[in-house]
Specification:
By secondary structure, this protein is of the alpha/beta class. The protein has helices spanning 2-41, 45-55, 60-73, 77-89, 93-106, 112-119, 130-148, 154-166, 180-197, 229-239, 259-267, 278-287, 303-306, 403-411, 424-440, 457-466, 480-487, 504-512, 522-534, 536-548, 557-575, and strands at 216-222, 246-252, 270-273, 292-295, 314-318, 332-336, 351-355, 386-390, 415-421, 449-453, 469-471, 492-493.
C-alpha cells in the first residue's frame, strides 16, 4: 500500500506546486501590467482597486499601501471605502479613523464615512479594558447615527442607503456580550433608511395559500454560495429537503462561482445569481411569490439592507453569524435545542426556533488521508511536544482568557499551541497579549506557541491529523472547525458560554454523547487540557468514543424534518 501511495503523493504535491506557481506567476504578471498602465494612463481609482485585489493575495499590507497611494493620487469615495475596510480588518484602528476624517472632508455629502466613524470596532483587542471602552463608543455612535442621518432629499436618502449597504458592524459580536439591545437600535436605523428609499417594499406581503398539489416555496439568500463555511453548514437544508413538498429558490448576490456553487444550483428548483444589483435582486425575490425567505447570513453588504425589507410573508435568519440581527422585519431565528441556553429567547429580537439536535444536516466529512502527508515540522511544530490546536479566527480569543494557555503550559512544559491568522497585524497584537499572559506565569511565550497565516484547506485538514488536542475558544466557540475536529476524532476541550455562539462545540459533543471534556469553569478547562495532554491513552479512548458515535451527530435527518415541520406550521398560521 505504501509503495502505491508514494507515486500518487508525489504527483499530487507536484500538481499543487504547479498550480501555486502558475497562480503566483499570473498575479505578478497582472501586477506588472497594472503598474505599467498606471504609468502610461495616469492614476485611476479602477486601476488601484485592481492592483489592491491582486496584491492582497500575497501581502495584505502591500494591498493597503496600494489603496493609500490611490487615495492620495486620485481621491475617490470607493477607494476610501475599501481602504477603511482593509485597515479595520488589519486592526489599524487609528489609521482607519484618520482615513475616515480625510474622506469626510473630501466627500461631505457621503454619509458612509459618518457611519464608519461612529461604529468602527477593532477586530481584536489588546487588553480586556478595551472592550467596555469600544462598547461605550459604539453605543454613543449609534445615537449619533440615529440623530444625524439625513433623509430629507433624494440625494440624502440615496447616500444613507449606500452607507448602510456598505458598512456593517461585523465585529460587535466578538465582544462576548448580549448584543440584542444595541442591534435593535441599529435595526431601527436601517429600517428608517429602507422605508425612506423603498416604501413599497416595507409592508408584509400576504401569505399565499398552498393549493392542492402545490409546494411550499422557500427562498434561501446568501452571499456565500461557494466553498464557504456558511454554505457547508446549511446546504443540507436544501439538498435533503422533501422535494415533493418544498420548492426551493436560491438567491445569490456574488460573482464567485465554483464546484459548490454548481452543487447548490443543482439542488435548487430555481437558482438566481444577481451580483451588485440591489433593486433587481429584491424584485426577483418578490416576484417569486415566496411563502418563506431564509437569510443564511446578513452581515454583508446589501444583504443587511435587504433584511430590513419585507420581501416575503415570513422571514427567517439562520446562524451563519449566530447573533440576533435586531430588525423587526425578521420574524424567526433558526437555532437548535442542543446549543441554546434555557434563556436563549432573551438574546434575540426574533422569535427563537429550536430545531432538533444541532439544527443542521451535516454529512460525515471524508478524510483524504492519502494526500495528508505533511509532518509537524511543516507547520513549525515540534515532534516531541503536545500540540494543542487553536484554529478559531483570532477575534474569537478575548484577552481575559489568555491566561488559559499560560496556565496549561505552566503545568505541562511540553505544551505547544498553534493559532491561525488572516493578517500579520492581528497576529502581532495576539503575540503581545500571549507574552504578557505567559510572563505572569514566569514563562516565555514564544517557546510555547506558533502563529501561522491561514492555511489552504488540505493543509488545514493535515493540521488536524498532526495535533493532539483541540482547544475551543471561549465566548465564541468553534462551529465548522469543531465538526471537522470531531470527524477526525480529535479530543476537544470546551467551556460553554452564556450565548449560543459560545455553546456550539458544547452542543455537538452533547449530541455526540461524549461529554467528559466539557468543562464547567476555567479551572476545569485547564485541568482537562492538561490531563489530555499528558495522557496519550486517554486521548485515544476519547477519540475512539467520538468516532464510534458519529452516527448520532452527522447526517442527522431529524434536523431537516424539524425544519420542515416549522415551515408547514408557519405557512398555515400566517395563511389563516
Amino acid at each position: 500500500m505504501r509503495n502505491n501511495q508514494q507515486p500518487f503523493l508525489a504527483l499530487f504535491r507536484q500538481y499543487q506546486a504547479n498550480v501555486q506557481d502558475q497562480q503566483l506567476a499570473n498575479r505578478r504578471e497582472t501586477i506588472l501590467q497594472v503598474q505599467k498602465r498606471l504609468q502610461e494612463e495616469g492614476a485611476s481609482p479602477a486601476l488601484y482597486l485592481e492592483l489592491h485585489k491582486v496584491l492582497r493575495k500575497e501581502d495584505f499590507e502591500a494591498g493597503i499601501a496600494a489603496l493609500a497611494e490611490g487615495c492620495q493620487r486620485c481621491p475617490d469615495e470607493k477607494l476610501y471605502r475599501k481602504l477603511i475596510f482593509e485597515l479595520e480588518e488589519a486592526n489599524r484602528i487609528d489609521d482607519a479613523l484618520a482615513a475616515i476624517e480625510r474622506a469626510r472632508k473630501l466627500f461631505p455629502q457621503s454619509q458612509f464615512f459618518d457611519v464608519a466613524k461612529a461604529l468602527l470596532l477593532p477586530a481584536i483587542y489588546e487588553k480586556a479594558e478595551d472592550i467596555p471602552y469600544y462598547r461605550e463608543r459604539f453605543t454613543a455612535g449609534l445615537k449619533e447615527v440615529a440623530t444625524g442621518m439625513r433623509l430629507e432629499t433624494p440625494e440624502d436618502r440615496k447616500s444613507a442607503l449606500e452607507a448602510l449597504r456598505r458598512y456593517i458592524p461585523f465585529f460587535l459580536g466578538y465582544q462576548g456580550q448580549n448584543d440584542r439591545e444595541l442591534l435593535e437600535k441599529y435595526g431601527r436605523i436601517v429600517y428608517r433608511v429602507m422605508e425612506a428609499n423603498y416604501l413599497q417594499w416595507i409592508r408584509r406581503p400576504t401569505m399565499p395559500r398552498v393549493s392542492a398539489g402545490e409546494r411550499i416555496r422557500v427562498g434561501y439568500l446568501s452571499r456565500h454560495f461557494y466553498l464557504h463555511s456558511t454554505t457547508k453548514y446549511f446546504s443540507g437544508w436544501l439538498t435533503r429537503r422533501n422535494r415533493e413538498e418544498f420548492e426551493v429558490f436560491t438567491f445569490y448576490n456574488s460573482r464567485t462561482s465554483d464546484a459548490v456553487t454548481d452543487e447548490i444550483r443543482q439542488a435548487s428548483d430555481h437558482f438566481v445569481q444577481i451580483p451588485e444589483d440591489f433593486d433587481k435582486l429584491c424584485q426577483e425575490v418578490l416576484s417569486s411569490n415566496l411563502h418563506i425567505l431564509v437569510y443564511l447570513d446578513v452581515r454583508h453588504s446589501d444583504i443587511a439592507a435587504m433584511a430590513a425589507l419585507r420581501l416575503a410573508p415570513v422571514q427567517c435568519l439562520a446562524g451563519g453569524h449566530p447573533i440576533t440581527w435586531g430588525a423587526a422585519s425578521i420574524d424567526y431565528f433558526l437555532s437548535n435545542e442542543r446549543m441554546e441556553p434555557e434563556n436563549g429567547q432573551e438574546h434575540y429580537s426574533e422569535r427563537l426556533i429550536r430545531l432538533p439536535g444541532i439544527g443542521i444536516y451535516f454529512p460525515r466529512p471524508v478524510i483524504p488521508r492519502a494526500i495528508l502527508d505533511k509532518k509537524r515540522a511543516d507547520f513549525g511544530l515540534a515532534e516531541d511536544r503536545t500540540v494543542y490546536l487553536c484554529c478559531q479566527s483570532l477575534p474569537k480569543y478575548l484577552p481575559q482568557h489568555d491566561d488559559l494557555f499560560a496556565r496549561i503550559a505552566k503545568r505541562l512544559p511540553a505544551a505547544q499551541f498553534i493559532f491561525l491568522t488572516w493578517h500579520e497585524g492581528l497576529g502581532e497584537v495576539f503575540k503581545a497579549r500571549l507574552a504578557r499572559a505567559f510572563a505572569a506565569e514566569g514563562l516565555k511565550a514564544p517557546e510555547h506557541y506558533v502563529v501561522r497565516p491561514g492555511l489552504d484547506y488540505h493543509d488545514y485538514l493535515n493540521l488536524l491529523l498532526v495535533s493532539d488536542v483541540f482547544l475551543d475558544s471561549l465566548n465564541w466557540s468553534g462551529g465548522l472547525t469543531a465538526l471537522d475536529a470531531i470527524a477526525y476524532g480529535l479530543p476537544m476541550v470546551t467551556l460553554p458560554g452564556e450565548y449560543m455562539r459560545g455553546r456550539q462545540s458544547y452542543g455537538m459533543l452533547t449530541q455526540l454523547g461524549v461529554t467528559e471534556t466539557i468543562a464547567r469553569d476555567k479551572d476545569q478547562y485547564v485541568e482537562l487540557a492538561v490531563e489530555l495532554g499528558r495522557d496519550k491513552q486517554r486521548r485515544k479512548t476519547v477519540s475512539e468514543r467520538m468516532l464510534a458515535a458519529h452516527g448520532q451527530l452527522f447526517a442527522d435527518m431529524e434536523s431537516v424534518r424539524g425544519l420542515e415541520v416549522f415551515y408547514r406550521r408557519v405557512v398555515s398560521e400566517w395563511a389563516g
